[in-house]
Design a protein that fits this description.
Layout (H helix, E strand, L loop, with lengths): L14 H10 L6 H13 L4 H22 L9 H9 L9 H25 L2 H7 L16 H20 L3 H32 L5 E6 L6 E9 H7 L6 H9 L11 E10 L12 H5 L12 H13 L26 H6 L6 E3 L1 H21 L3 H4 L9 E6 L6 E8 L8 E5 L1 H18 L7 E2 L11 E2 L4 E2 L2 E2 L2 H11 L17 H15 L4 H8 L4 H7 L29 E2 L2 H10 L7 E3 L2 E3 L17 E3 L4 H20 L3 H31 L6 E3 L4
Parallel strand pairs: 5-12
Antiparallel strand pairs: 1-2, 1-16, 2-3, 3-4, 5-6, 6-7, 8-9, 10-11, 13-14, 14-15
Helix pairs in contact: 1-3, 2-3, 2-5, 3-5, 5-7, 7-18, 8-14, 8-23, 9-10, 14-16, 14-17, 14-18, 19-20, 22-23
Amino acid sequence: MKDAKGNFYFDVVNEDLLEYYMKNIVNFPWANHMALNMIVATSKRLAPSSIRVESKSVSLRLKDLFNHYALKNMNEFKPDLHMYDYLKGQIYTEHSLNQRAKFLKCYFTISYRTEKWMQSKLNLDHAAMFKAFVLPKPSFDTRDFTLMKQVEYNAQQNRKLETSAITPLLPQIRAEGNLRRNQLLRLRNKVREVLTAAKENNWPLPIAFDYEESEAIGERFFFKLWDKPSFVLAHREQYSSHSIQAATKKTGAYSNKQNECFVEFVKSKRTDDSSNGEGLWFSDLMKEDVLGFWTQNKSKEEIYKRLSYLNQWGYGTEENKTYPVPFWTGHKGVLGQSTFIAKAQSKAEGIIFNVEPFYVASIFALFALILFTGSGIRLNELLQIAQAKECLVVAEDKNHQPPRKNYIFRLIPKGRDEPENYYVTEDVFKLMAEILQLLREQYGSKTIPLVSYEYRVRKHMFGQDKYLMQYSGRHFDSDVIHTILRFLFHGIVIQTDEGGQVSVKPHLLRHAFATHAVQTEKLPIDVVKEILHQKDVQVTGYYSQPTHGQIGQAINDLHDNWVSHIDIQQDILRCPEELQEFYDEYREKVGTMSKVAGGICTTDAVCPTKMACIGCAAKVPRPEFKRDIEEFHKWASESEARFKKLNLPLEVQKMKIAKNRARNELKEIALIENYQKDASHDPIVRIHRPQE
């Protein structure tokens, strides 16, 4: 097939899509039908990943139908008969409602799209020639089936149940994310201290060491530092003579280049009574052996045991796979452990792991969490953030003394083709600076490299850039973000009203953000629409529908605060002229980064709460302004008592709401103070030298 200029249509189809087509579709009777759809969908600029999902869904179900009815070619395929029976659930009864609904939707979409394209793009002769390759339409209507509405309703209800469970816990989730990242950062620093001491004093490994964790943890952690040769020699009865000989001579996998240092978590003790502590939050992932691609070389009994564990934590069903791998990123250096460590785990008394991949996962997960819960950013927008002057903007408003800085990401929202402003706090930029430093250290360079955009949904829209969410020379895809979030929050019990365990996911956090902003903080829905960068206010309305748990409940504020100072990287440039003009327009209003009661205002629009700053979703509470909130609470309490004497019940109720908002802000500030104090904790490590 060629266009009017003689160019082959297939030349513009994505290569990865063609590769999938050649491996999975080309030898089946519907090969030409799917090929035509790929050409048409590509001409309409659909994402290759979306085309692949459609093609896969239709092709898999057609395989099922052709096998069941023993069909040999498309002429024998009768949608009114064969599709109808399947959609009614009369065959393949084990298939889910979702599978049937997806097939129905994708089939009709492909058929309608290709027919319409041929009518508008091809002359009569060509249209007649290729009409045979349009999927035959059934005579029934999609509205004849309730499964589409049922699937949509079930999905919405499930999402609302999960949103109801997670929304009240957002402040605690953010605090726990900070604490856990701090914990891994401390361990990383102490391991480096011990390694430095070992090299300076020429101490052989293993070396035992311990240190006291922060007050938030309240435990002393005990470790051993190993490398490959020392571990093999210490467990020689479990290794072959060849491995022992190689370890003794430090050759092959045990040579300096291929050697690897790792720690063994031995135990933890409570600092108050010396009883056994809880230890590291991820220890059970290692004990249960579900980290990474865990299904390899496992018996049926072993697989069943691990599946049972994953299902208890809500990881088994959400993957929609027979054997889910919720803690496998497929990305080198992020969470995953080496083959040596994976095999050596069963030989160790404690839990062994390389700290660096865990720390890398934690800092990127924390950065993602802050943006998901602080601005409702989408996953694809997070992955766009790059170290480029077009993306990172520090706008300075000199009309204020001292000049006021505003921190902005310039990103392209879903369904748009031009960048828009995403306002964040200075602390987001500070954490970004830490990630940049981590990447520079990993690459051994003063700058980070250009990498190709990997998120499948929008891969066709973006080229190479210095994307922040990268490691080992590769940009993260969506699976990496989902996986590191699961890791950072593993073990936290978040349950729906029905008792189901909720797993932290990017889109769920976005829903929680919108729900809290509209239902609890009473921001106008059109303001939340702009914050979420959505086109349709009806979509915002769905996102922000009230949850079951919000009825009669008061929950904490929207934004979180981190450390109070910032060291902006030199690469981050100032605001262009058009953004400066934008701020001139708003400088007389309560706007971005203005000091308000109890914190900092982050909205650049007209004040959504008419200056009622206590409890406002657009404010970032700060511990240094806690006195403002305490005085407000005192005033509200005194006013409540006065209005009671005056018999003004409406005013009494207003003061109760005001007191409740102030209390919630004070609770969140307490959480902030806790992890800020935790971040500054630098314990003295006790090294037990080998001779001891």
